[in-house]
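Raw record, unedited: Peroxidase
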Amino acid sequence: MKLELDDIQRGVLSPRPSPYAATYILFRIDDRAHGRELMRRLGAVVTSAADTVSPLGETWVSAALTYHGLAALGVPPESLETFAWEFRQGMAARARALGDVGQSGPENWEAPLGTSEVHVVLVALALDSARLAAAVDRARPAYHALPGITAIWRQDCHALPTETEPFGYRDGISHPAVEGSGIPGSNTLETPIKAGEFILGYPDELGGVQTVRPEVLGRNGSYAAFRKLHQRVGAFRRYLRDNATDPADEELLAAKIMGRWRSGAPLALSPERDDPALDTDPYRNSFLYRQDDPAGFITPGGCHIRRGNPRDAAVAGVVRLHRMIRRGTVYGPPLPDGVLEDDGADRGLMFAFIGAHLGRQFEFVQSEWMNDGVFFGAGDAKDPVIGSGDGCGDFTIPRRPLRRRLQGLPRFVVTRGGEYCFLPSLSALRWLGDLED
């Protein structure tokens, strides 16, 4: 099966370039006619998955709509009712199921995230700030001079000089192969996943087809979960330092918690020491767990990457039903090396999780794999990196003759806000622009 790449937004299927610069801009639609005009204009600005060569290079613009945004455009109620129920509820309403409680609760989110004010999410991404500015300039006429469209929030993102995420790990390694896209996956041992797991209108792994009525609105679209995640880098460093015996042990703990060394080299391929040479190895992400490490002596079952993608683990159910396309972009200044106290600066990741099944993809992974440990026999243990820890959690590192247990895991990542969005096809953007009352 081949996908209709010229109708699918490029931001759905293309891996993030490296290095990169990006920006997220949120809009509110105050005037329906102006909102529809915005959709018409965006139809000419948004980059398609077929457009892999452009004058700006690895640069593209994506546009997404919240449930409230679709309603503000006047999409008929009978059509709105055909969207996924999680999408209709919104991320803030699903907070408890996602582990967004306490400090991460919607009552503490950055305004206007999680509110009915957010209607349109515009994302621009490029290799550097100069090309990003050109991409934003190209998109600006789409919303400029439309008084019924109000920009209400913006988050600029960028690659750190080290090309790592704020905790210091090499980022952007995993990318699933989508059947029919022609874009290779990062794990050569993973069979391409059915397109319907990520894009509406195509068969998924179970043979079903996710649809929205009318077909022109749903086909070639995707759902996305956008999240702003603040990272407590000083607290993370201090926890490693307090629980390690020496600097080498500190790096080992960091690797066991993540499942990768700081360079991005997986423990599965380099269990004893970091191997930065793997960073340029095209097969650095081609590994499995059950065959070589069923008990987690090399890669602990509760580490971050094994929870996020258990690969061939039998206890995780049908892993392919829960795969997502992940996009992470860094925001904020880096915390200087060696500093163990957070300085109050806002830093972290803007994350986008893309798929066709919000419930059994993003929500399942958050609730069952990140914030629970039953699936691999660890009770209610949470993910040591992004789990909703409260200072009482623990993390077990299998080893002989005695296992090692880290206790008192605090919350290292705090949710600052998020939205469930729909990424319409290019033809759907034009359809939305032509709506009439």
